[in-house]
Every structure is written in C-alpha cells, then in structure tokens.
Amino acid sequence: MSGAPLRFTGDFTRQEALPPEALAAAERVLLSGRLHRYSPEPSGALSEVSALEAEFAAFQGSRYALAVSSGGAAMALALRALGVGPGDVVLSNAFTLAPVPGAIASLGASPRFVETADDLTIDLDDLRAKAGGAKALLLSHMRGHSPDMPRLAALCAELNLPLIEDCAHAMGARWAGKPAGHWGRIACFSTQSYKHIDSGEGGLLTTDEDDLAARAILLSGSYMLYERHGAAPPPAAFAALRLDVPNMSARMDNLRAAILRPQLALLPARIARWRALYDRLETGLAGSPAALIARPVAEAFVGSSFQFRLPGWTGARIATFLSRCAARGLALKWFGAPEPQAYTSHYQHWRYAAPATLPQTDALLAALFDLRLPLSFTPEDAGQIAAILRDEIAAVAALPEGALAAPALTLGD
Ligand SMILES: *Cc1c(COP(=O)(O)O)cnc(C)c1O
User: Fold this and answer.
1) CB-CB neighbours of 45 under 10 Å
2) Which pTM was predicted?
3) Which atom of ligand 1 has the smallest separation from the CA of 195?
C-alpha cells in the first residue's frame, strides 16, 4: 500500500448528543420554573429527581436509590453513613481515580491503597494483608474492571469489612448475572459526562438497608422533606436520625434528573454499542505485542474505555509511541506519566494520603495505556484505531533505542 498513513479524525472527548426525549424533558423542567427537587408539583406528581430514583432503583434491582450532586458526593455520603470519621483508615484500590481518595479525605479519614493484579483489579491477597484496622473498603470497578466478585464479597465478610462499590465505570455491568453494585452494602454511581449516562455532573447511590438509606438521604440535604423521595425507606427509618444527621447539601436538581431518565431507558442499547466498539478494538489488537487485559467469562462488562499494556517498554520508547499515535489522531492516555495529566491518575500523586510503596501497581501503571470509546464512534472507527495502534506498536517496537525520542522519566526512576 502507498500514500500517507491513515490518520484518525474522530474526537475522543465528544460524547453522543442527548436524545430528543431528554431535550423535551429539559424544556418542560425549565418552563415549569421548578428546578429544585423539593419544589412541590401542583399535580402532586413525583419530581423528576424522585422519578429518577424510582427508575434507577428498579434498573439496579435495589430497594433504595438516592440521586446526588456527583459520584464523589455519593461516596462521601456512603462512607459517612457507614460511620467512617476522622482518623479512620479506608481501603481502596491503588488503581483508581482522584475522587475516590478525595471522598475518603473529605471525612478526615485516610486512604490505604491496595495493590493491582495483572487484570487491573484489586489484588485480593494484598487486600487481606492490608485489612487490619481498616474501617471499610471502597472498591473501584476502575475503568470497568471487576475482580472475582464472589471471592471479594466472601473475603470482606470474613474480614468483617463493610464494602462500598464505586460503580462509576460499571453502571449496567454484571458478574455471573448479578449487577455491579449488588455485592456490598452501598453502591455509588456517577453521571458525569464520561460515564454511562450523562448530566454533566451528578451521582446516584443505592442500598438495600433502611438505616443506611435514611442516613444517606438526610446527609444529602433532605431537610424534613425525606418523605418526598422516589425510592426511600418508610418514615419510621428516619425517626431516630432526623435531628442528629447533618445536612451536607449534595442534592440533585430536576433538570439533571430530567435528562438522565431517557438515557437510563437507553442504557441497555448503549451497552451493546459500547461492547461492539470494545470487541472490535480487542479483535484488532489480538496477536500484536500489546498485552490485552484478561476479561473473565463471568464478567459482563460495559467497555466504555479500553486499556492495554506494553510491558518492558522504556520511558523513551513510550514517549515515541505516544507522539507518533498523537500525530495519527489517537489521544492515548498513559498512566505512567511522571506528572499527572488530565484525568490520568497515579496514587503517588495524591500526597495527602500516607506514602505507600506498591511495586506491582507501579510496574503495571508504567506501561498502561487507555482509550476512551465515546458512542459518537462507530465500529469502523474502532477498527481504524486498532489498525493505527497495531502499526505504531510494531514500528516503535522495531526502533533501536538510539532512535527514540528524548527519554521521559517514569515514576520510580
Ligand atoms: C468519575 C469517577 C468517579 C466519580 O466522579 P465524579 O466526577 O465525582 O462524579 C468515581 N470513581 C471513578 C473511578 C471515576 O472514574
């Protein structure tokens, strides 16, 4: 083949436009002049936020659901509802995003990071080793990768460790048929633009426990209006708590809820589309030197982003690879960058947490790459991305060390 090499022109940051039903619902809310979730509806109907809570509880198969202002707020409320407070230690995966340790720190508690297995999930042996004295585990299904959930749940039960699931990248995922968010005591979701349903910012929390649901609702800032909720426990659950639980003002508003409801209805179809993109990329990279991430058959994941590793590549080789990919239109994220960039994250960049040494995680992140797969892409786009990656991985692997870009420092150097 001759001619200029293929250049990808899609935009990795462009989400799909909202569906027409969401636009119509947004207009209705704006014209109603009732944006606050507790503005009484003259018809006596549920507010948009309460309706979203009822629909999300049904979608998840959870007893209770609470809509809040962000995924981070959902996690902070969940920790607080479980009684985590200043000085407590909360375990979390080292491979996670900044809002997770941030939620822990917001309570005056300290994150304790657990090592990462080759499949990017939490290392269960290291979890056992580090559990002593911890108050809870805040587990991230980071980038949609779930550990062996029955094993994890059994281990948490054995260690008497309350489990909170961070399902920011796992809304709609299942393990052996059971939804993500059903393995622990509370689950937290994000509706920020790069997650599975999009209101710009927003979050949801689910639980089956009356006491935790009542605490979370009061914490979210329900005043004495907790009876006006879509999926809340009976008033008796609030009786002993309502004057003792502080108001953290983390409510969702009707505009966001209105644009989320039609998206929730579309989620199963969206998941099928994400999987088509993911599978195309995975097939396109099979047999290349890239190490793909193992996906066990029990894991019905969503695939809204794609990760691969180039084990053993030096910082200079990676820098060359990234700049050549960028020149061909691929916005790759690299988790090993010495300085945090955009949304990439490395536990060593969260200096408010106690310093930790996690050699397994360091080695993985040093050669870990990440691509977003927005639904504005088609499967043909995913095929093009795979073709460019294959080309560049092969070309850069063949370069002698002397032909590489100036070495970039990797963490741990
Ligand atoms: C996005 C995200 C969250 C929550 O983020 P918010 O921006 O606060 O909604 C939590 N955990 C992970 C892993 C995330 O990617």
Assistant:
1) 10
2) 0.95
3) 1
